[in-house]
Amino acid sequence: MMRDALFGGVNAAVLTPMRADLAVDLDRMAAHCRWLLRNGCHGLGILGTTGEANSLGVDERVAVMEGLAERGIPVNTLLPGTGTTAIPDTVRLTRRAAGLGCRGALLLPPFFYKNPSEDGLFAYFSEVAQRVPDGIALYLYHFPQQSAVPITLGLIERLLRAHPGRFRGVKDSSGDLANTLNYVRAFAADRFEVYCADDGALHAVLQEGGAGCITAAANVGSAVSAVVYANWDRSAGAEAQATLGVIRKAVTMFSVIPALKSLMARHTGERAWLAMRPPHLPLDASAEARLFAAFDASGVHLAPA
After folding, report:
1. How far, in Å, CA of 254 to CA of 148, rounded?
2. Would you list the domain boundaries of the chain?
3. Whole-angstrom Cα distance, residue 8 to residue 204?
4. Residue 170 in contact with residue 212, Cβ under 8 Å?
5. Is residue 201 a contact partner of residue 194, using CB atoms and an 8 Å limit?
6. Within a 10 A sphere around the Cβ of 219, how many other Cβ atoms?
7. What does the pLDDT profile of the chain (305 residues) look like in tens digits?
């Protein structure tokens, strides 16, 4: 396990609660963030895929960062997603994150134009790095199923060489454990932090020298993830990993955002959690019943909200 990583440990890819009119419910989001920090999370990956960030406008994303800071969420725990298809928007979001005191920002690649060259991606990330403050660490977001843009070993190597100290790590959402471990083997010795997005991979990634996880299922499984992290080199970690795998399987039975919001609605007793922006829609009663049965099979009981 990599020790002293900037976001080392368990980071939830935090849900973004909505009101009935589909505006962001910042009070509910802040309450959820506080609950996560009390229940195993070391950090909070806000404004990511699970957080419906690509359904939010740039002004709304700024308001989320500012709103959580105003509501007392420690900004040093926040890892906001700031990557967009447009360099000016990415720079604006990253600068605001830096101005609020966030220690890092997670950058999607420019995902609209398909099959970009490595030179083109290098130029994009280099422009961002040159236009944002030195004090904020930049993390790459590898999610080729969604972005259709790979973050290759060669690209990372070029960025690390050209911008020493700026690019601090990567979140691997590929679901390909071999790829995640290749990141670790290639760059962890240089203190480059590798985070898995697949909860099922956490134990293996930590054993190889990874920094931790940034995962959707941590919204409901962070306490179990924390046991895996704390016991990465002991049998208790492997045992907790088995439970975490059951949670991950349940959460991914259906579209992840509706599934997690259904679980949070049941946990809190607040049906307002079911609001989400189209094209996402709430699960129907039959799907919810299957989801709840699969989650309950893990034996995990969530701490009171």
Report:
1. 21
2. 9-233
3. 15
4. no
5. no
6. 25
7. 999 999 999 999 999 999 999 999 999 999 999 999 999 999 999 999 999 999 999 999 999 999 999 999 999 999 999 999 999 999 999 999 999 999 999 999 999 999 999 999 999 999 999 999 999 999 999 999 999 999 999 999 999 999 999 999 999 999 999 999 999 999 999 999 999 999 999 999 999 999 999 999 999 999 999 999 999 999 999 999 999 999 999 999 999 999 999 999 999 999 999 999 999 999 999 999 999 999 999 999 999 98
CA-wise closest residue to 143 among 37, 48, 56: 48
The Cα 24–Cα 47 span in angstroms is: 11
State the CATH class of domain 9-233.
alpha beta
